[in-house]
Every structure is written in C-alpha cells, then in structure tokens.
Amino acid sequence: MKRTVILACDVYDPNTPELSQEWESLDTIQKMETTIQNLGYEVAVLSNPSEIASVLSGIPVNERDQWMVWNLVEGYHSPNREAYIPALCEYLAVPHTGSSASVQTLTLDKYKTKLLLKSFGIPTADFWLVDAGTEKPPAALPLFVKPNGEGSSLGIGEENLIQTHKGWEKVVPTLLKKFHLVLVESYLSGRELTIGVLGNKGNYSATAPAYVDYPGFVYSNLVKSKESFVESLDFAVPTELTISLQTYAIQIANILGSSGYLRIDFKLENGFPYLLEVNATPGFSPVYSTLPLLWEKAGRSYSELLNHCLELGFSEYEHHHRYNYAKEKNL
Known about the structure:
The chain has 3 domains: about 5-100, Rossmann fold (3-Layer(aba) Sandwich); about 105-125 and about 190-310, D-amino Acid Aminotransferase, Chain A, domain 1; about 125-185, Dna Ligase, domain 1, CATH 3.30.1490. The longest helix has 18 residues, at about 240-255. About 40% of the residues are buried. The model has no long low-confidence stretch (mean pLDDT about 90). The chain has 11 helices and 13 strands. A hairpin with a 2-residue loop joins strand 12 and strand 13. It has about 325 residues and is of the alpha+beta class. The strands form 3 sheets. Strands 8, 9, 10, 11, 12 and 13 form a 6-stranded antiparallel sheet that branches. A 4-stranded antiparallel sheet has the order 4-7-5-6, sandwiched between helices. Helices cover about 35% and strands about 20% of the residues. GO terms for molecular function: ATP binding; D-alanine-D-alanine ligase activity; metal ion binding. Belongs to the D-alanine--D-alanine ligase family.
C-alpha cells in the first residue's frame, strides 16, 4: 500500500483577517504537494476542519499507520490552535508531523514558555505578562511589548518599543483589546538570530544559526508579510556564539520534548544571546520561511528536508508512548 500524506492547512489569502498572516501561501502548499509526491507518496490537501476530521476518522483502523498528517493548521484566537491536528491525530492513532499537542500549546504561550525555560537556566531578558488591569509599565523603560500568543510578528511595529509613558498609554491598550494578553520584555538592542532543531526526543541536531537582518530596528509584521518579504539571513556567526546557540537549542528541545522540528529565536545584548521565543509550527516555504533556508545552508535539499520530517513523524508514531491509548483502544 502506498503511503498517503495529508497536508492539513490554512491557506493564506490577503483578503482574510490580519490574524491569518501565519497561514501558508497557496504556492507553498503546491510546492510541498509536488515535492512529497516526488518522494513517492500520495498527497491530499485539506483545509476545512470538518473535512479533515471526517477523512481522518474514516481511515480504516488497520491502515492508519500508512497515513501521515502534515500539521500546517495555525487557526487564530484560540490558545490551542496549533494543537488541533496533533490532538486529533493522537486520539485517532494517525501519525502526524511535528510536536505533540502539549508542546504546541505551551510554545504558543510565550510567557509560560519563557518561565519554564528560564527555570532550567536558559537565558532570557526580564519579562512580564500584562492584561487589561495593567495601567503602567512594570519596570524601567525602554521595554518591548508584543502579543503573548501570536507569531509572524503579528501586532508588532516600531511603536512596540516603548520609550515613554505616553508610548505605553498609546500602544498597550490597543494591543490588549485585540490580543487580550501582552508580553512585556526588557528591550534587547543587539542583532536577532534564529536556529533550527530537527529530531525526536533523545536524538536532536541543530542547524547552523543565522543573523536575521531587516530594515529598521524592529522585526515588524511588514518585514514578515508574505507580500513584502525583505528579511535576509547572515550566516557569518562567530564559532563561539554558534556553539552556544546550538547547545541552548538542543537543551530547549530536550526540555520541551519536542518532535520533528523547531525554530528558535534569540537576540543579543552586549554580545550575549537571550531567548526570544520557540516556534513549534514553523513555516515550510522554500522562499520565505526560515527553517528550510537554515536546512539548505548545509547543502541539503528542500526535498530532503520534507522527507526527513516525514520519517521523523513515522518514527514518533512507532515509538512514542503518547499514541498507545488510541492504538490499544482500536485493537
């Protein structure tokens, strides 16, 4: 029986709400579909929640180990939105790419992720979580503010660097009204870096890190926009810093118990790296997504990346105890 991959996705459309900025473009979905077909799989692209649930539940129990769901669903609003597919797949005993629902839900919450990782010694800037009851800055300025549960630089512009109390009063209430919870951090003035981690628990490898360069001094939603992608990667990272970042990245993957892939962002202050955030559902565009570019820097192809991620998903399904309940219930 030929294995089948379902690309479970939200497809980006510039006419949809701003909160859909994280969704993959149709070009990316089509590129992934063609690449995976060339690897020898059947491929189905599904983007409707009811259809995805119906198709998965309709797979014969004794054939579910021959299917793979590539989790590209980002949703919006819900703190569980990146965990929809992993939870469903685990419950039905269908393999999926990427991390479990618990890892997805945790890493979408920047504050809780930083709390956990800081407790294990991962360096972070000072940070606070604020809600509608917070009327003044929690610490000395300058501070940087951003939505606590969004990616793709949603809700971020140069005005998010708060240098005056008037700036706080102008920006923070607007963010809270739209995003409900806001993460506040001591401002880091150095360059931003990113790094990828591939593998399952106990067998992780980190890519080479890269500086992320962009116009201005804030990695805003204009930089990250699919219509105006203007960031660039600089791989001229000193050896000592590279080793430090790779060590932190693998330590973070082990603490979280991630699966498949992560992209982790850091920022420098006085030459020292501080964790910004962890992304357990990174983009997979070969054009505008960082993880494929980090992978390809080592001379490995986009096709090899997708194949590796699929193999990691099947291995996770075979060996991880989190699938046992569904497997045993289906006997």
